Amino acid sequence: MPSRVYGPTDPDSWDPLTNAISPPSDESAQEREIRIKHELEAKQKSDAIDEDLNRQRAAEKKGPKPVRVLLLGFDQHSGEGKSTFLKFFKLMHDPKAFSAERASWRAVIQLNVVRSIHVILDAMTHPSQPRHDPRKQITSSTSSSPLSGEIPLPEDTSDVEPELIQIRYRLSSLLQVEDSLTRQLTPKDYSEVGTTQLAPMNHIKHVATELAINSSVPWKQRFDRLVGKGDTERMIIDWDDPNDPGKILHACGEDMIRLWQHPNVQQMLEKQNLRLEEMAGFFLDSLSEITAERYLPSDEHILRARLKTLGVSEHQVKVSAGSDIGSDWRIFDVGGHRSLVTAWAPFFENNLDAIIFLAPISAFDQVLAEAPKVNRLEDSVSLWASIVANKILQRTDLILFLNKCDLMAAKLASGIKLKDYVVSYGNRPNDFDSTTNYLRKKFAGILKENSPLPRTFYCHYTSVTDTLSTQKVIASIKDMLMRDSLRHSTLLL
């Protein structure tokens, strides 16, 4: 193995970078040939990327200006619906590309299921703890997130039914599925990973933080394999592969269903304030479908799947508009910690048609996983105020999505009162129309008071489960932005 010899002897001419990339002095002819070959291949790839970028820039200059939209929302725990919006948009305007990702989302859905079961199994190591007073929850270290808070462990587990202990033991094989899927989704040196072992029945252990994928990771390419064209196109999945995670999920299907439907488990989750059905990526009510032998996700399942991303990602979608004008859409998703809001704004100065801000109003009784003393709805309001007041973005249209209205309605119907968390709501009626109208006016008032320039307030109510309504909302936003794009191009008077 050749060794590097650092030089030259003259300290004034010594360059650390040059010495770092220079070949070893004792490099053999064969090693030199291999090195040069690799360097040429790397240069060819680099030149091809540069040429592609140059072609894109030239095409953008000649062609119509693309519609550029930024998605915002920074709730790390359950997500605000940014991913759902992107998938909806692709399903509506590029269904072939949406279908091509089906195998990729199959793996994500399987991971969502396994981690939800993991939460339940881990919760079985904790005591049955009464629900906190809702008026004190926003200052408590406990949230509805299973990934935050500390719950003391009982001295014994005599209150756990033997049947559940046996199910827990049989489902321990799901840890292999979780590790396997995590490895498939996260190429080495590309991402943040959060996995953990099941908690022993006599030790405190909480489920690790959510798996996070850097936006630069080409994770979908590890699953997407298509053959054929048009109607004959089909997905290649090796159903006979012994390492396919679907085999273990199928074998554990009945136990997972029995665990989730067990009355004692439901009671335990209720007492520990673990509301799994409010988490993004919740599929425990669809276990019979997902654990089927040859499961391929439906469009609805893909829309509900959850995979957290970090960094800024760009999504290009061709939208049919009857002409080439305005058909190229660029949708940017800013993922990561909420404290990074001001960091990205300068990169989009005078370069955006609209910002879509997603606020999960159903989270009015929950706190942030990364900041347990901050109410999630209050955090969304604060973020909205900071975006509205940002002078760099003052000429950008703002579109507000009051999201997860279905969960909001269910909470209000169950007796949870908005006034216990939003003091200013007072004694107004606790029904859906009154509460959402109040929140809408609150966001609108912030825009009117804090925007550097007058702006129209665009607001939509959205629900993950109401696909038809969401499609109509997206269609109306598309039409509005495309008309604005044409007007700015002086092609529409």
Low-confidence spans: pLDDT under 50, at least 5 residues?
Answer: 1-9, 129-155, 190-208, 225-234, 489-493
End-to-end gap? 72 Å
Number of strands: 9
> Total number of helical segments?
17
Average predicted confidence as pLDDT: 75
Short description:
The protein has 493 residues and is α/β, with parallel strands linked by helices.
Question: Can you describe what's shown?
Answer:
- The protein is α/β, with parallel strands linked by helices.
- The protein is built from 17 helices and nine strands.
- The strands form two sheets. Strands 2-5-6-1-7-8-9 form a seven-stranded mixed β-sheet, sandwiched between helices. A two-stranded antiparallel sheet has the order 3-4.
- β3 (226-227) and β4 (234-235) form a beta hairpin.
- The longest helix has 34 residues, at 29-62.
- It starts with 15 loop residues before the first helix and ends in a 5-residue tail after the last helix.
- The model is unreliable at 1-9, 129-155, 190-208, 225-234 and 489-493 (pLDDT under 50).
Secondary-structure topology with pairs:
Elements: H1 16-21, H2 29-62, E1 67-72, H3 82-93, H4 95-100, H5 102-123, H6 162-170, H7 174-185, E2 212-214, E3 226-227, E4 234-235, H8 245-251, H9 253-261, H10 263-271, H11 287-290, H12 299-304, E5 308-318, E6 328-335, H13 341-344, E7 354-360, H14 376-389, E8 397-403, H15 405-413, H16 432-450, E9 458-461, H17 467-488
Parallel strand pairs: 1-6, 1-7, 2-5, 7-8, 8-9
Antiparallel strand pairs: 3-4, 5-6
Helix pairs in contact: 3-17, 5-7, 6-9, 14-16
